[in-house]
User: What shape does this take?
Amino acid sequence: MKDNQYWKDRDEMNELLKKYNNLKNGKQFSFIEEESFLRLIDYFDDNDKLSSALEAVNFALEQFPYSSSLYIRKADILIATQNYYEGLSYLEKAEVLDSNDINLYILKTDAYLALDFQEKAANLLEEAIAIFDGEDRIELLFELADVYDDYENFDRVFNCLQLILEQEPTNEEALYKICFWADYTGKNEESIKIHEHIIDEHPYSQLAWFNLGTAYQGLKLYEKSIDAYLYAIAIDEKFDYAYRNLGDAYLRLRKYRDAIEALQKVLELSMPEDIIYEAIGYCYEKLRNPAQARFHYRKAVHLNASESRLYYKIAATYMEEGYWESAVKNIENAMSINRSQPDYHFAIAQCHVQLGHIKDAVVHFTQFIKARPKNVKGWKELIKCLFDAEFYEEALEQIYNAQKSTENKPLFIYYKSAVLFAMGKSKEALLQLQLGLETNPSLTRQFIDLDASLLQHSSVSEMISNYKNSQKKKK
Assistant: This one.
């Protein structure tokens, strides 16, 4: 039946084009009705023949000079060809003949926006909304929302969508859009009220339940958001976005097994995405299952091989299991994409320490420090690396640098003491230890962690013990 209709329409259009060409060429008298002219104009427009469409509308206006529809079509073509002022003049003529055609307001809006007259466009549509009702009013509200979006009055975009839903609570386009704008404008509390009202009247609207869930999630009320998403899924068990947000909500609550289950459902229902595999990998990482985390990070890499972060996360799973060489290879992959990321230098330095590649470790710790000179972590690991390798002179030099860069953090007083002990400079070392105890006694544990054999020095254990006893007496 559809094929028959297609051939019938095609034959009718061919006949109409023949009649039109005869009229243009003056071969014979041929009258074409206004409705047929409008079909011709649409035909040319649909086939991107705007000059032919304009020519056809001019012929039509010669025969039907009082047709508002033809003036509107001419204005439409002129606006499409960027003749905005001329298009507006024809819309004025059309308005004199029929001011109740919604296309007048939509085309005027298009022209005003193209001319950067956003306020004019908004005012025009505000007036039109008061005139029209039903589907026409909804269409104008969508137009007005686009105008407010164009000049970044986002609260009013939200208000327009709210008005649409008041008139038509199950309007899918408005429900989809208001979900985004509620989050963007932070109007989550208003969104909750709107969607609770819709659900009262339409309890099986899965989009209303979904939007309610996203509003709760925006307020970090994750338990309530989960309840709403579960209702949405109960209504539509193939609602992949509900599963996606459900997974995120479970993840926020550290319910990693539930999050994995929801995110696996997303993979079943939609095209696989690296971000979903990455999220599942993260959940397994938190569940202390590095092998499964790595498996899903690799899946993510297959979909997005240019994302350095994914290689870094794979490396972290190898580091968790002590597979240092495999970790290095993956960090090197990450660094081939983004060498300037300081965390990659820090991680690969840690691997090189474990592998006994001290020079490589020093190079990368140094790169990390260059990027983050005030970060105590970088200095601490660099000095430990040098100390463990018995490069005491270099360690002492880096301690001085660390103190300069970190505004004399007390930790480095202890490290200086440990290095001086290792160099056989016990008197200087004890003076530094005493200074450390007076400055921040809670760091004693890190002093011992650097070199447990320090406690074998009777003077060290005695000084620490005396200090603790003196503090107890003060209390």
Summary: The chain is about 80% helix and 0% strand. The chain has a mean pLDDT of 90.
